[in-house]
Specification:
By secondary structure, the protein is an alpha+beta fold. Helices cover 50% and strands 7% of the residues.
Length: 200
């Protein structure tokens, strides 16, 4: 299996983390998206949308969209709840992450960490909605150890990818006690080094 990804992208890291957690064999192929690496004719044959991550399976088939990829890779594992409703709640979080979290938290982080913008230059609406997403996470995590059924799942992987680096997008993470506790648990579950949550 080949994983085409940008090592600084949370969406790409989700795929790497799940693969490592499950002991899957893969070749990581670094794609520099800022230099047009995902827009070459060769890459566009694998992903016509020109996006990372993209996975090429051993049989040559390709799969795109980070949460679809991790959902496929983790089938039959303990990262997906066995009970149907719990699995659906996990999917609920996966959809929410891409629609109500990533477009704000990740975009602010991209603009500061990748493009060099200052926090004062960010779109106030994106900042507002990013905090709304983080507030929602904080409320939910104040009621339980993980996002779904008290057990570590793909929901935690997906949401942690950009939440653990939200401070790089100017978000003040000191106000989120439950999130910071949860990030530590996710990092331990994935064998990741602890990240320092300080506002940039």
């Amino acid at each position: 299996m080949k994983i085409y990804g940008d090592g600084k992208s949370g969406n790409c890291l989700k795929v790497k983390w799940v693969s490592d957690r499950l002991g899957l064999s893969y070749q990581w192929i670094e794609i520099d998206t800022l230099k047009g690496g995902s827009r070459t004719p060769e890459f566009l044959k694998r992903n016509p949308w020109g996006q990372v991550p993209t996975v090429e399976l051993d049989d040559g088939r390709t799969l795109m969209q980070s949460n679809a990829i991790i959902r496929y890779l983790a089938r039959g594992s303990d990262l997906i709840p066995q009970e149907d409703f719990a699995a659906a709640k996990m999917d609920e979080w996966l959809f929410w992450e891409q629609y109500s979290h990533e477009p704000y938290v990740a975009v602010c982080r991209f603009q500061m960490a990748y493009l060099g913008k200052k926090a004062s230059e960010l779109d106030p609406e994106k900042v507002k909605r990013g905090y709304a997403a983080l507030d929602h996470l904080e409320r939910h995590l104040g009621q339980g150890r993980f996002l779904v059924g008290g057990a570590f799942s793909l929901a935690d992987v997906a949401l942690a990818a950009y939440t653990r680096v939200a401070h790089e997008g100017g978000f003040d993470m000191d106000r989120y006690v439950a999130i910071r506790r949860w990030i530590g648990e996710v990092e331990a579950s994935l064998g990741l080094p602890s990240i320092t949550h300080q506002q940039t």
